[in-house]
Fold this sequence. Notes:
Order of helices and strands: HHH
Number of helices: 3
Amino acid sequence: MSNEKYVKDNSFISKRTKNPNxxxxxxxxxTREDLIAANNNYEFADDGLIDYYLYQIKATQSKYxxxxxxxxxxxxxxxxxxxxxxxxxxxxx
Length: 93
């Protein structure tokens, strides 16, 4: 299972990066933002959309946990990810 790969979000990530882990870090940050948005949407959802947002939260949380696991395997200090803000200019060579 060590050969598992995560799916890169090519619309967000530059194909040329300085840091080989930059794409993984970017995916983690974006997924965390998606999770926050899903939680916010759930809090203000109408009765008909509550189940939808619950499933969205569950799916996004699973993706986030997977990416954090990959980061730990890559030796990235996961506790520091909350303080990282990556800008597009930081990712390009």
